[in-house]
Amino acid sequence: MKAGKDFLQKILRGDRSAIARAISIIEDERPESIEILRAIYPHTGRAYRVGITGPPGAGKSTIVNKLAHHFRLQHYRVGIIAVDPTSPFTGGALLGDRIRMTDVELDSGVFFRSMASRGSLGGLSKKTGEAADILDAAGNDLVILETVGVGQSELDVAKAADTTIVVLVPESGDSIQAMKAGLMEIADFIVLNKCDRPGADQAVASIEMVLRLKPMVDTWNPEVVRSIANDTRGIDEIASMIQKHRQFLERTQLLEKKRETRILDRTRELVNEKLQGVFWNEERNAALAAKAVALLSLQTTPYDAAEELYSTFRVVEKS
Amino acid sequence: MKAGKDFLQKILRGDRSAIARAISIIEDERPESIEILRAIYPHTGRAYRVGITGPPGAGKSTIVNKLAHHFRLQHYRVGIIAVDPTSPFTGGALLGDRIRMTDVELDSGVFFRSMASRGSLGGLSKKTGEAADILDAAGNDLVILETVGVGQSELDVAKAADTTIVVLVPESGDSIQAMKAGLMEIADFIVLNKCDRPGADQAVASIEMVLRLKPMVDTWNPEVVRSIANDTRGIDEIASMIQKHRQFLERTQLLEKKRETRILDRTRELVNEKLQGVFWNEERNAALAAKAVALLSLQTTPYDAAEELYSTFRVVEKS
What we know:
Largest sheet of chain A: 7 strands, parallel
Number of helices of chain A: 14
Oligomer: homodimer
Structural class of chain A: alpha/beta
Strand content of chain A: 5-15%
Strand order of the largest sheet of chain A: 3-2-4-1-5-6-7
Number of strands of chain A: 8
Mean pLDDT of chain A: 84
């Protein structure tokens, strides 16, 4: 095995540098990632996965920090993946505050890692899920996936998580009403952070109004939890709400259902990648490129060109 | 032809109800949409496509209104597609202000239509482009695609447009810095609307700072245009900047390149849809579902399951 038995054993034992290397391999989409993921898969399924998202500046990092600390006191092993939507301008992380979290990083029971989205919006969901698998197999009890709620990333995190928390602040206000509505759809509960600021009561009221529009799913009622994460206020309540939601998911078998959906979706995606990989060989890419002139000069249509390309592909069903 | 020769002729003649029906067919992904799109494709490629995006409340609708009016005075025929990210909560449009625009709608030279994204983030780009094709074939000189900059929709619009405009307001501030950065990447120029509000100079300065980080592409330098759309101030400048960008794209052959990329991407996507459609028949969907137990109980991995599913598919290259 190219990935190395030693290397895999190290991941499973929770060796920090092996875990970091494995996540880098996934992040860079190196070919050995499949091999690693296949090997560690049988050791997954134990970690509970929490997604945290919200607008920039809502205090997500602080909440994740303090939550990790909270669960450490209960002897949980905690892994954290912070997803940074990178800016194609600079190639760097958008928010660039990943130097934080030193307090939890010093604790050997917490593993922290940031992952950049590198502009490939589609691939982020897959990579986040794969990194969570690594942390799961490495023996973490809790995996926290954190992302700023811009673009597609919050949907990716919601797909990869068992419980999804949306963090807002009083001043989020109606200018980001639409964004909030988008975020609300994925929230299992809402945290209103910095709730000592003016407008908190009003914000809670308006969030609750939006939540009431959401059809209740299997008797779970998303609530608003208030916090002032900087002062470690509300952290216990957030942790309790995570546990409450987890118990709800377990009781209703929805946890298993979520995991099933995740795994089947991933399998389907792997097949689709394979199909496209087989189809789009050098020859067919060239054949597509060669159609550019005819397409631009309206001699043919994308629909006819696609059919013509596809006709070079003969599928024989196996008996 | 099922779609009907009469119907197609009506679209090409710019008949408003035929156009509206065609876009509905595309929106609902009805099977005859392919037939319509294939038939009208040879009549496309004449309209210039402008995308307008930005946060909610930035005044995009007003700008689109006034721009349409501006170009009408120059005897352009204008088609407008406003993309509404729908809320899965309510099924309705998120911003719900589509009753506006009556002033331009009354003018028979302007066609206005809103399209809902219906939660299918992936499909929006395709549908927007297809609706733009209809408006193009129907004889419009200018097609404006408008969307609120949340989620994926702004990327979809940027892909479908020749010139992409991002509208911001002074108070957009740094709380949405990240969102702005995402929007900046797709902007050919920025409009700072409501620039009579406090903080406008500061906002222009900070936007220009971000723009300077953007590597200059083929000598095009995105600039900031100030407007107060409610008072019809800055509209001429926006229209001039669109023309300036268009001339730049034409001079550098980048316009053709953009169109080529768009058409080839669509052709590729059509092939991929076909591949997946052929592969995921009832039998294989059932075979995937049947693997759920083994996957959840860790008896197999998604990687092995995908290979096993794929192995039922035998491809014979045609000579």
